[in-house]
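Task: fold both queries, return tokens.
Query 1:
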Amino acid sequence: MTDRATEIAGWRERFESVLSRHLPVESEEPCMLHRAMRYSALSGGKRFRPVLIYATGKALGLSLRQLDPVATAIELIHAYSLIHDDLPAMDDDDLRRGRPTCHRKFDEATAILAGDALQALAFEVLSSELPAGSASSLQVVNEISNACGSTGMAGGQALDLAAVGKTISEKSLVTMHRLKTGALIRASATSPCILAEAGEETIKHLAIYGECVGLAFQIHDDILDVTGNSELTGKSTQADIALNKPTFPSILGMEDSRKRARELRDEAVFHLQSVDGDTISLSWLADYVISRDR
């Protein structure tokens, strides 16, 4: 394992305890709801968004402790989105991170409420743990709110559902995934900039980095849906094909999809050249998103 991979593995391990500490205990009523929240949020996963937040913060001179509220909030929002994405009204998935999805483990009503509660908890963490009275704290809340609402993740999911069974253009597919997947990843790169009160140029370049990495992440997810091993990915493969969803391989073909992901990786790394500070971890993550097996 490389030094960079070891560092990032350490961040992941540390984040698990940070996240667990913010979740309600299972013995507190309503117990089933709290069990469902912990079951979904603490089910492992890549923790890519928190790691990206820590890597960006490192480049900007922020400590992990300063970044913990943002990392926790964004991961809670991501966990809620996965619960709702798996519901019968959405993708109707049975497997997530190698375990039964929340609505299969519990029931649909509990899963819906668990997702709702995780999103609310995300903003509770932000409002209670970011520096009080700081303009940057309010700006971070605004940034993350935009990333998960109708002009971000939720809007992308709506476009995704509307596209089922239809032939759409590459441009429309890119728009959909820039919202559904990319918006929260972009916010993971820009929120530390706001906390660090970075200059406009730094924010611009890291925003583009986040956009490129977010889209590359989704393209590689589409590739893994075709070529991946469900024992490694932790979710059903060929799921998009079964649902007749448009994907990058179905529109561009497999080789052109891989080429596009590499181009986005290269563009992301190019923009890091304009950021002062240690950006090696960010460069490593840009490569990781298109080389991972899960």
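Query 1 returned. Query 2:
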Amino acid sequence: MTPGDVNEAVLAAVDVVYGLRLADASITWEDTYVSPVAPRHRLDPAPLAGRLRRHRHISHVETRGPGLLALHLAVPGRIAAAVAGDEGYGRGEMIEGSWDDFPRTFDNPGFRVRFAYERACAVERRARDLQVPPGDPAALTAPGELRLLGLLAGFEGHRKPMLQLERIADAYHDVHESSREEPTPLHGARVILAGAVRVTLRNGLSRLGETARERL
């Protein structure tokens, strides 16, 4: 689920429970998706949590602090599947800032972001060439994969999008370099993850005025 998907789920719950039609649930990512909709509109979060627990993609909901709703996904890997399937994910206002093109080394954050995009594209390309079957996103459970999923989920609306792009790129390099050479069922899931990284980095680079390149 993307932040937009979770936003719709929370708004639907508010409508059903309280009969209120709100415009936004202000979804952010901490260690999971979080919404301040209850305290912001002076609503009791407990009925909302109960309603949201019925959602097929949400495993449980807890309340934090002043009534924030923390929504935990049944399958975190669905974040990758949702992002990979949404070519518009991460689009938004132009970002002020830029990275140098050189040096093309890992000391340059711009290179790390652009190279991560190239790597993600290469993974998808090889998967097509080798006819790797689609994987199950539920297989994305390693700590590095979960960290990357959280960074992807937190990209939309992030206050420091360039920094988030760098974090996504670094996390993807870590995941990519830990991959085994022998084909396993996890490879199909990693292809989905690569698709999510490709979409997010491409749209992030576009907001910086760059055209993402499949080959540097």
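Both queries returned. Flag for query 2: The longest strand covers residues 58-64.
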